[in-house]
Amino acid sequence: MWFWFALGSAVFAALTSILAKMGIEGVNSNLATAIRTVVIVVMAWGMVFLTNTQGGLKSISEKSWIFLILSGLATGASWLCYYKALQMGEASKVVPIDKLSVIITLVMAFVFLHEKFTPKSLIGCTLIGVGTLLMVL
Questions:
Q1: Does residue 137 have a pLDDT over 90?
Q2: Is residue 19 part of a domain?
Q3: Residue ranges making up the domain that contains 67
Q4: pLDDT in tens, 11-37
Q5: Which of 11, 23, 83, 109 can pair with 29 through a Cys bridge, CB separation 3.0 to 4.6 Å?
Q6: Is the same domain home to 46 and 77?
Q7: pTM for the full model?
């Protein structure tokens, strides 16, 4: 089932890029990011209340709070950079560079989470890196 959610994520991420590029014309990138964020906050909390999981707030550990907050800050920084890049560049070049996050994530997962870095993942990272270069040059 995780595969279908991951595929859905990829499809919605692609839509995000196209819709953002269309909507950001003539709008400050920081303002556009703030508008997007408000929509996401309303949607996320809507899902929490729709699924009646708001009671889980009490059981979140301090460690989890810290890492979720840090993750939120990283997401915010990513979105601010992404929208500025989209405003300044072509979506067909910005998006592949943004997707270098796959390589960075694999390396960080190896270093910090001690996940396996296999020959297959090394080949995949290489292909993603080469593919990105081909797309943006």
A1: no
A2: yes
A3: 2-89
A4: 999 999 999 999 999 999 999 999 999
A5: 83
A6: yes
A7: 0.84
18 and 69, same domain (yes or no): yes
pLDDT at 98 (0 to 100): 93
Regarding whether 108 and 85 lie in a shared domain, the answer is no
Which residue type occupies 128?
I
Output the CA torsion sign for 91, 94, 96, 102.
Answer: negative
Token pair in block for residue 108: 């960080």
68-82 pLDDT, tens digit per residue, is 999 999 999 999 999
105 and 128 in contact (C-beta within 8 Å)? no
User: Is there a domain that residue 130 lies in?
Assistant: yes
3-state secondary structure of 7: helix
Residue type, 74: A
**Structural tokens at position 26:** 């003539």
Rounded Cα–Cα distance for residues 93 and 99 (Å): 10
Counted domains in the chain? 2
